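Hi C.,

You asked whether I'd gotten around to modeling the 325-residue construct. I have! Everything is below, sequence then structure, no commentary in between.
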Amino acid sequence: MNVYEGKNIRNVGIVGHGGSGKTSLVSAILFDTGATNRLGRVEDGNAPTDYDEDEIERKITIAAKLAFCEWNKTKINILDTPGFGNFIQEARGALRVADAAIVVVDAVSGIMVQTEKGWGYAEEFQLPRLVVVNRMDRDTASFERSLESIQKSLGRMCVPIQIPLGEEKAFKGVVDLIQMKAYVYQTDGSGKFTESDIPADAKDRAQEYRDKLVEAVAESDEKLMEKFFESGSLTDEEMIAGLKNQVGEGKIYPVLYTSAIGNMGIQPLLNTILNLLPDAVARGTVTGKDLQGKDVQRKMADSEPFSAFVFKTFSDPFTGRISEH
């Protein structure tokens, strides 16, 4: 068993309206990281985190589930949560123990009621957030319409760090606006891609949104603002450092694009989780209960005694009360 230091652990909760593809996104993450050997599908009843009989029958997530994987020597703990109104409180309980949230938005429908509730829970716990626009390969999927919906409902500091290459059936990958590189995917669900220069027909849009990203990063940091006014731009290193700080402080919410069913855009998302979201020790000091029920404080550090957040307790007919943490 691998042992990970706190700096090499990410704890993320995935929230969003029902049907936006959260469980499919988790399935693609687990497949691309090698945690599973096949790309599970909700429709086929073999999604790794929808294993309850009722979930398989209804094809929806009913209870929050925990999954984990490794990416670039970092462990990512993932909480896959329900998105339908009757079960949305499961999402709140899961975010209570997460260090960051990934808010999944349907590229067809945009922001919906339970998306806003999940966002509200993340705000309640002051969690850094990524916004993932999923299902970019579906009919009537729209980059501009979904982004307008996000910025109108969640705020203008939801800023793309990618733009999609195509949409609907023509969706084939993403452009990284920091490195200004294109990632073009195979269409067989393998998750394989090639890195290339930005296609000629996407260069103008990429530059437009790169400029908007630079302005947003500079606007949120006084020193970067001075550098921006002096030189008119920021280096990649300044962009990444500025983004990481501002994502951690809840000033910027990066927007990314995927097709979970098509297994496209997953590796850039994983890299963003590692590069921009806080590690497990960034929470600082927390208050909890010891075995005697007394309040104790724990600094989130490898040197501290073992501590765990319990996010759910349930009764099993064979083993009794079980607490998940």
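If it helps when you're writing up: Residues 284-325 form one domain.

Thanks,
B.
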